Amino acid sequence: QVQMQESGPGVVKASETLSLTCSVSGYAINFGHHWGWIRQPPGKGLEWIGSIHHTGITYYNPSLKRRVSMSMDTPRDQFSLKLTSVVAADTAIYYCARRGAGNKLIDFWGQGILVTVSS
Amino acid sequence: QTVVTQEPSFSVAPGGAVTLTCGLSSGSVSINYYPSWYQQTPGQAPRALIYSTNSRSSGVPDRFSGSILGNKAALTITGAQPEDEADYYCVLYMAGGISVFGGGTKLTVL
């Protein structure tokens, strides 16, 4: 069974960089699939941030593209998110997730981590 | 940017049927968008229900079904249960390899 767990600081100062890591167990991330990040502001809907393919190719939400970068650490089965120049609107629960390459199903999710942008 | 549209809220009586829809601000939804549906209850991560328009994810009860209705993707719940009260999100797969979430539908079972 695939398990995913987000880690990183729960508070980030405005204008600084948010950095999160997702640790995957039960599946080798270089074996296939897309590995993605999704966020949800408190009380609001879900937003796809982007994903990184097992080959290292990245796909970013155009609205966040200028500020987002993702990377993989395949020996550790981890992948990471960096979001630069954060503002209050970036306060959200951040989920890591696995998306199927063929069927596009987001089948496994982390439990989510709340990141608050402080002024 | 293309917006994925969903009804903000819906209600259904226990045992009843309800169809939630997922559209595009411009154009029609087809199987080429690989419509998928997710259920989220308070405090929990979303759970996959339907993928590739009408395939049920593992362990999902057969009262959940997906389809294309007209120019939209649809999620139908037949025989709604109290535990089906949740937020439902559709996701469409777009050119460029990104997934786009709809705004979500809050379903009340009462």
Note down, in words, how this protein is organized.
The complex is a heterodimer of chains A (119) and B (110). Chain A is 0% helix and 53% strand. Chain A is built from no helices and 11 strands. Chain A has strands spanning 3-7, 11-13, 18-25, 34-40, 47-53, 58-60, 68-73, 78-83, 92-99, 106-109, 113-118. Chain B has no helices and 11 strands. The A-B interface holds A 34, 36, 38, 45-48, 50-51, 53, 57, 59-63, 95, 99-100, 103-107, 109-112 and B 1, 34, 36, 38, 40, 45-48, 51-52, 55, 57, 87, 89, 91, 93, 96-104.
Keywords:
heterodimer, A: 119 residues, mainly beta, 11 strands, 53% strand, B: 110 residues, seven-stranded mixed β-sheet, 0% helix
Could you outline the blueprint of secondary structure elements for this entry?
The complex is a heterodimer of chains A (119) and B (110).
Chain A: E1 3-7, E2 11-13, E3 18-25, E4 34-40, E5 47-53, E6 58-60, E7 68-73, E8 78-83, E9 92-99, E10 106-109, E11 113-118
Parallel strand pairs in A: 2-11
Antiparallel strand pairs in A: 1-3, 3-8, 4-5, 4-9, 5-6, 7-8, 9-10, 9-11
Chain B: E1 4-6, E2 9-12, E3 17-24, E4 36-40, E5 47-51, E6 55-56, E7 64-69, E8 72-78, E9 86-93, E10 99-101, E11 105-109
Parallel strand pairs in B: 2-11
Antiparallel strand pairs in B: 1-3, 3-8, 4-5, 4-9, 5-6, 7-8, 9-10, 9-11
SSE string of chain A, helices as H and strands as E: EEEEEEEEEEE
* Largest pleated sheet of chain A: 7 strands, mixed
Q: Please state roughly what percent of the residues of chain B sit in beta strands, choosing from under 5%, 5-15%, 15-25%, 25-35%, 35-45% or over 45%.
A: over 45%
Report helical residue fraction of chain A: under 10%
Oligomer state equals heterodimer
Secondary-structure-derived class of chain A: mainly beta
SSE-based structural type of chain B: mainly beta
Shape field of chain B: globular
- Largest protein interface? A-B, 28 and 26 residues
- Average pLDDT level of chain A: 96
Order of helices and strands of chain B: EEEEEEEEEEE
- Tell me the β content of chain A: over 45%
The N- to C-terminal Cα distance of chain B equals 36 Å
Helix content of chain B: under 10%
What is the molecular shape of chain A? globular
Uncertain residue ranges of chain B: none
Largest sheet of chain B: 7 strands, mixed
Annotation field: number of helices of chain B: 0
- Number of helix segments of chain A? 0
